[in-house]
Amino acid sequence: MKCDLHVHTIHSGMCTVPVAKNFCRESYNRPEAVYAKLKRLGMDLVTVTDHDCIDACESLRSHSDFFLSEEVTATLPSGTEAHIGVYDITDRDHIEINRRRHDFESLAAYLREHQLLYGINHVFSGLTGRRSVSDYELFETFVPCMEIRNGAMLRRANAYAAELASRSGKAITAGSDAHTMAGVGSAWTQVRGAKTKQEFLNGVRAGKGIARGVDGSFFKLMRDVVLIVLNMMKERPVTCALSPLVAGVPLVLLVNYWLEVAFAEKWFGRVTHRELLPLAAPSLAGEVQA
Asked: Domains of the chain: which residue ranges?
C-alpha cells in the first residue's frame, strides 16, 4: 500500500513570513482536489497533515480510504519548535494534542499512551527556526519515526535524515510536504504486503516503510512560491499591487537555498560527529529509492 504522509491544504493557516502572514496562506490546496490527485497517482490511502488543524477532514471523512492526521507545531524543552507528524487520530486526539503541544513531555506521553504513530518531519531543515543539540537527543530518544524523503526538501537534507534514522534505528516515513497542487504525491511511503490501513500503519511502525518519490530542489521551491503568490492574488486581488516584488523572489529563494544547505551541514556534522563518521551514499534507511 502507498500513502503520501505529508501534504497540506488551505486549512494549514497563514504563512509564517513576516508581513506576508497577514494576507498569504501556507497553502491554497482544496482538500477534495488533493484527494482526487492522490488517487490519480495511485495512492491506496489518503491523509492530509495540516498545521495544527483537522478542518480538512470535514469534506474527506466520507471516503473509506481516508484517515485523519495533522502536523503538530510542538515546542521543545529548549524553547525551539519542531514539526511532528501524527497519524490516524480522532477528533478527541486532536483536542488533546493541541492542548499539549507546547509541553513536549506531556505531548509525547499522550502519543505513547494512546499508541499513536508519530515522527519528526524535515529534521535537517531550518524551516522551524533554530535548533539545539538537545533537540536531536530528544528526537532520538522519544520520537519513533523520522521523515527521510520530503518532496519539498533538498536531496542533501533528506540523505542526512536517512543516515540519522539508520544510525538511531528509527522507522521511516516519506511524504510530499506539498503546499501547492504541483507537488502533491511527489513523495510517499510504501508498505509492501499491507492490505488495510491498520496493516499499513503497523508496517510503518515496525520499520517496514519504504520511502519513494523525489526530493525537492531550488526550482521546485521557486515554482511553489510563484503558485502560492498567484493563488494569493486570485483570492485577494488587492495584493496584486505587490506584483513588482515578485521579481525579487529568485534572489530571496537563492539565499534561502544556501541557508538550508548550511543548516543541514552544520547540524548533521554536530549530531553525528561527521569528522569521525562520514556520510555514506544517500540510500540508507528504509530502502530510499526514486
From this structure: 2-272
Grid cell digits, residue 180 = 501547492
What is the chain's length? 290
**Does residue 278 surpass a pLDDT of 80?**
no
How many Å apart are CA 35 and CA 7, to the nearest integer? Answer: 10
Q: What is the tens place of the pLDDT at every residue in 198-228? A: 999 999 999 999 999 999 999 999 999 999 9
| 81-118 as b/e: b if 16+ CB within 10 A | bbbbbbbbbeeebbebbbebbeebeebbebbeeeebbb
282 CB contacts (<8 Å, ≥6 apart)? 155, 156, 158, 159, 162, 163, 288
Assign domain 2-272 to its CATH superfamily.
Metal-dependent hydrolases (3.20.20.140)
* Angle, CA of 104, 108 and 159, to the nearest 5°: 85
Reading phi first (left if > 0) and then psi (alpha if -120 to 50, else beta), residue 193 is in left
Burial of 19 (0-12, 13-18, 19+ CB in 10 A): exposed
- Selection from 137, 132, 157, 136 nearest residue 147 by Cα: 157
Q: How far apart are CA 156 and CA 69, in angstroms?
A: 27
Give, in degrees to the nearest 5, the angle at Cα 121 between 97 and 21: 75
C-alpha gyration radius of the chain: 18
Which of 211, 221, 191 lies closest to 147 in space, CA to CA?
211
